[in-house]
Design goal:
This protein folds into two domains: 86 residues, Glutaredoxin, CATH 3.40.30.10; 100 residues, Glutathione S-transferase Yfyf (Class Pi), Chain A, domain 2 (Up-down Bundle). 51% of the residues lie in helices and 9% in strands. It contains eight helices and five strands. The chain has a five-stranded mixed beta sheet with strand order 3-2-1-4-5. Helix 1 links the parallel strand 1 and strand 2. Helix 4 packs antiparallel against helix 5 and helix 4 runs parallel beside helix 6. The two termini are 24 Å apart. It binds glutathione (GSH).
């Protein structure tokens, strides 16, 4: 397998899941400005969507979309307990949270990185992001990870998105459960290995 990624981007969630699963994979860095990969490939020819993450499977096919890739990695490495099996009601709680992180958090950060967003719009967006952080902060009350004491693909995703708070100077201290959670996740060997491989630490 080969993961097409950009350091610190949402592809990091997939990178963390691969490391948590303990599988072998290659990495290929993508420059999102030029749409070129580090080996000189035209990334749009690889993934016509033009965005990361993109995972080349062992059969040569390309799979995209964070939520799908996280499920693929969890289901093909079921022994790693990154996602309960089909039929287990807890599976849908994990997927509910993956979708929440994707649509309510990940996508809410987008305008903060867009130079075309006005300062006024950014201020309003921060307030909006805060309402979503309230929800995950409450979800984490009294538990180690989003779904209890087991790290799941939802945690791989939220760990990645919380990392973006630094890039937009968003102080997370109003959400103490999130601050403690981020510390726990960031100290996991698979997360540290991911950050190092992406040149983020
Ligand atoms: N729907 C996609 C969104 C992926 C996405 O937002 N990727 C960003 C990085 S976090 C990107 O590559 N943006 C560059 C672009 O859209 O040109 C998914 O869930 O995987």
């Amino acid at each position: 397998m080969k993961l097409f990624y950009t350091p610190g981007a949402c592809s990091m969630a997939v990178h963390i899941a691969l490391n948590e699963a303990g599988v072998k994979f290659d990495l290929e860095k993508v420059d999102l400005q030029t749409k070129k990969t580090e080996s000189g490939l035209d990334f749009v020819a690889v993934n016509p969507k033009g965005y990361v993450p993109c995972l080349q499977l062992d059969n040569g096919e390309y799979l995209t979309e964070v939520g799908a890739l996280l499920q693929y990695i969890a289901d093909t490495n079921a022994g790693k307990n990154l996602l309960p099996l089909v039929g287990d009601a807890a599976r849908y709680r994990v997927l509910e949270t993956v979708n929440f992180v994707s649509t309510e958090l990940h996508k809410s950060f987008g305008p903060m990185f867009n130079p075309a967003t006005s300062d006024e719009a950014k201020k309003a967006q921060i307030v909006h992001i805060g309402t979503r952080l309230d929800i995950v902060n409450t979800q984490l009350e009294g538990q180690e990870f989003l779904l209890g004491d087991q790290f799941t693909i939802a945690d791989a995703y939220l760990t990645t998105v919380l990392g973006w708070a630094n890039f937009i100077q968003l102080d997370l201290s109003p959400w103490p459960n999130l601050v403690a959670y981020a510390g726990r996740c960031m100290s996991r060997p698979a997360v540290i290995a991911t950050l190092k491989a992406e040149g983020m630490m």
